[in-house]
## 1
Amino acid sequence: MDLIANHITHRFGALEVLDDVSFTVAAGEVVAIVGPSGCGKSTLLSILGGLLQPSSGAAELRGAPPPDSRNPLTFVFQDFALLPWCTVAENVEFPLLHSGLAIAERRAAVDDALRRTSLSDFRGAYPKQLSGGMRQRVGIARALAVRPAILLMDEPLSALDSQTRELLMEDFVRLLADGSMGAVYVTHNLEEAVRIADRIVVMSRRPGRIRETVSIPMTRSERGDIHAREKLLALQSELWSLIRQEAVEAEREVQHA
Amino acid sequence: MLDRAPQDDSKAGLRPVAFRGAGFAPKAGRYSGWIALVLVIAVWQLAGSIGWINPLFLPSPAAIAVAIYKLAISGALWHHLSVSVMRIGTGWILGTVAGVLVGFAIGLSSLARGVGITFISALFPIPKIALLPLLILWLGIGEQPKIATIALGVFFSTAISVYSGVDNVPRNLIRMAQSFNVPFGSIVRRVIWPGALPSILAGFRITASVALLLVVSAEMIGAEYGIGAFVLQAGNLMQTDQLLAGVVILSLFGLAVGKAINLLETRLLHWR
């Protein structure tokens, strides 16, 4: 199943946030969206996931989702969005309660998602008892439980410390390794983008337009190699030079506002 | 190979950094409140026993305890108390049910919000006891006007605490549920209701006091039985020991209700 941004433009009142954004996320592909603060990355992700109606243009799907997918477009949120009154297992089960699955099937789906995210020992814990990294793991487990075709990730690591970010990035790379799931990964962090994405969409400052689309010329499994890391570092540096000036201007704009 | 930096183990010239982080973290001692209460009662009793206080104006704690005992033995206490509890219970339940329904409607529907907030803003500031004469005209002189006064007082505070609670449910949780295609009713039941519950229970605490205040006021205005009527009659007859017995019973009733709400919070909000 492909996800297509088709000439998406969006305004909040008089403020134009996105201007004619078009791109396609092919089945199993990981596309990172980077750009200066306020360029509309999160707005674009909300539109792609059907949580916000664009002023014009549309988010469209092409092809059927995998038959076992219970929620083809599934978000992983920056602030985790866990129900604080539910345990880890209940949070993971929450989206399955209306999926028509029998209790035994739901339990099996929850157990599988918890196992894949190494959370089996924490199924009875409440979110307040978990660290930030563990909470995001619960958010990922909840997303995996519905077997998404495309994960929509809105800066999923930005609320976490650098060590936890590194560990979760390894998890993401592992989970996306077999190509059964695609992803749109919104981030400020260029290192994360070059590490996880097949393609990187670079956006301009507000109103966000696509400035450049950059392909990463190697598979994710090749990126751990020392020579590959040098190449990725160079690519990261090129990306930064693309958005640096606009990031400075966006920062100034925020301060003046 | 890591090149480890040498450690400085020299103790010469060391002095401790002064601690500046004390205070601004008050904690209630486990028994301090009870000790203070016992002390105040003891001083009060002593002052009464040695004649510093005229018992006509302020009877001693022992005299009040005797009055309560006699009221309990005679059955008058239970009669007055049961009438008041019936009025409070009925009025509080009616006001709470209506307040929760209207509060949720205001919290969830644009139409109800537009209409409801205007009416609530206009009617909430009216002291509800001022409506008792009007309610007596409408409903007669029986139990109904007193119960209606309590229900009205409870209704407005409940509706406000419920829609404030609904408004304060983190939007990201609702968006999360929507992103999984969870149906509207289920979002209300599984996300908004538990999310608004802390505010709703805080509202219960306020409405319990409002109900107690209104029942006493209503009973003082037009009732033969009830703790409010009993306190007023005792005052008119200068039976200050009985008057204070009624006040103590009201205080104990308020404490019991507060304790019940505490238990409810502990049970329902254990996740906080």
## 2
Amino acid sequence: MRSTSKWLTLLLTALLTLSLVPLASGQQTQQPAAGRDQVVIGLQQEPDFLNPLFAEMAASVSVMSTIFTSDVQRDNTWKLFAQGVTYLPNLKDGTWKLDGEKMTLVWRVKPRNWSDGRPVNCGDYVFAHNVARNEQVPVVVRDLTNRISNILCTAGAAGTAITVNWKERYAYANLTVTEYGALPRHVLERYYRANPSKLNEAPYGNDPAVTVGDGAYKLIEWRKGASMTVESRGAHPIFGTPTIKRITWRFIPDTNALVANMLSGAIDAISTIGISFDQAVQLEQQAQGRFRVFFDPGLIWEHIDFNLDNPLLADVRVRRAIVHGINREQMVQQLFQGKQPVSHTYLPPRHPGYTDAVQKYAFDQARARALLQEAGFTPGPDGILRNASGARLSLEIGTTAGNRVREQVEQIIQQNLRQIGIEVTINNFPARVFFGEITNQRKFKALAMYAWVLSPTSDCDQLYTSDGIPNQANSWAGQNYPGFKNADMDKACKAASREVDEAARNKLLNESAIIFARELPTIPLYVRASVSAAKNGLRNFTNVQLSGTYETWNVHRWSWQ
Amino acid sequence: MQRYIARRILQMIPIALGISVLMFSLLTLAPGDPVDLLISSDPRVKPEDVARLKRIYGLDQPIHIRYVKWLGRTVQGDLGWSRTYKERVTDLLMDRIGNSLWLTITAFFLALLVAVPVGIYSAIKQYSFWDYLATTFTFFGVSIPVFWFAIMMIYLFAVWHPWTVWSPVAWLVLPPGGISTPGVGTGVPFLVDRLKYMLAPSVVLALLSMATYTRYTRSSMLEVIRQDYVRTARAKGLAERKVINKHALRNALIPLVTIVALSISGLFAGAPVTETVFAWPGVGRLLVDSVLGGDYVVAQAVLMFLAVLVLIFNLVADIGYALLDPRIRYD
């Protein structure tokens, strides 16, 4: 029996040692995972489709950047540049003309071919636009398509000159020729004619044999649930000849396994659609100089909406007191080592419409107490504040259950606000319920914490305008979940969304940011960093995560040292 | 027996229909319709887009009409079209079942190969060192969380692998996940590559079953070797090996056969956690992803398929039990 115990002790010790020993031993090589002419990227999501008309996932957009040419693209500094077109239309040289409420933009497409050798022409743009317009085609978004009245091929369908006539003014009309750009008419038309409502069931975008694109690479293999590979098309008139011949994405849904893949050297990079912030921090600690982990401020904005229909939150002094009462600076230091900065308004600092000249609310409990007193709240026998009618200042906060970081933030807020006499109760929901009912139908009682994924063209129209308040009558459309109504905000946001002059638009957005920070319909928390990782030897890999632009924006310039 | 089987098959029809109604209703009535969610996740989506998409996908019709249409298509073998995977669900399901079977069958045989001899030895050498070791092993097997063990296997065999400094075993490095090396080709290289990718997830998957089967075999064997007929066999002067193999083992394995038969339907269900951690595109991962992604057409197909399998293999287990144990008779 004694010898048995000894054996068992030895076994247990061995198992424990196994789990505690530092895992990265530095034995792994920095060499490319699959050869010097290949790059293997770890992706947490699998693309749903590679047909721009129907692709809905960020992972699809990331991969499509390699097999399609964008009309206009952004670089890693978020600066716009013409990729598939020869210039960006502008008001000064007359390529963007205003005619009352209508507009006309004149474009010229750079000559290039589809990967099957057929030329890309104006007819391909017209075809894609007409398909998107068709009511029977299950395209999800038709926002720009519905704003365009017609497209003219001024040099014929086989030419590259395109004139787009718009029904209404739209601020960002020079970011793309049409909503879905060019699609190979010669491949897709037969599926479209056969059954428009089943166009999404056509093999284009799914089967490498028929998925032709106009980008630097072509799709050669898609093993569903496992990996996808694109191969260089050789010399391309826009991208030149890429150094990396093949790029493979491996789909690894478990983020811990994704980290392990990077540590083992089985993948060369982790996409921005990959690991969470805290995993990136851990990965950085284990990198030991073998790879770089990137942290860059992004466009995902974490915040807490007030439900302004709640009488306790109707007074702006109460809302300001709550923000003064939360130590957001300490929160981001403790939870994110300061790598995800506190936000003060709804636009992230790198957004072109951002201004720093907004009212800020530093952690100041004395100021918070004074504001609450001004608003008529006095402490009750249990230490919780009460208003003149005796209602306790007790607020319910909710978020997506299981999101560890948000749950930690809730606890910090609960403790902070308790110190100024506000009771916070936590009631979280599964994400599907939270976004399917609680936020979009404004069923949260007081506070709802979540994030908005913004883009460099995001503005406040629908987000904080009174016509964006979801209700039964408008089928719960609109994103103004706090229920914020402010005439000045409506004016600034509506004008910004229609202003074609960038400087004037940014001024209007500045104005909206100032109104937002003054009225506080929402508690701004922090801006999430976009994170990714790449082996040291992989040159020109950049960390970008915008809607429409990911690390693959310059894939043709990647190479191994 | 034939009447019994016919009756059971007839009973399966209303049960399967009941399951389908319940499953269809639960998935359809769950909050957060995937098309409705589009409007809150993307400001560019307008109410008219949602109405148009619902019309195209038939989601604007009442639930009972949708159910009848779905049932009609399913009976004809058309499981629908996946909105997430942009693929016919039948093709998707067949592909994923194939992948899952690679893994689950390997794990199943691995588990049986270890569990049966260990369980027998553990029982006949009760309270020995090896019995304690086996019991401890089964205790670990049923207690260790699968996701933790899977991550540890990845770290050990793909990231850390300290033995690689010793050249004779330097080859023992496993891929940290996935199903095959892109562009590996076909034939023997494909098979070798697939085995390399399968090893770690199979061991992880086998561990739990191994522990369970070992426990069943051990307890069943312990019960049998105390029976009078085993004592009689020994009294007759039979060799111990013959007593165990011929008299005890055959009877001890009866309950295990039932457990094994019931587990077969589980082989087709894949293993959600193991498949997710090892990025193995199997049925389990498909089910989890489709539920999380709101792709109910896929979720309904997978659940219905698994429900029918469970019904079939329950019947197989009952029949098998009757065939193996003469004491069992069905009228």
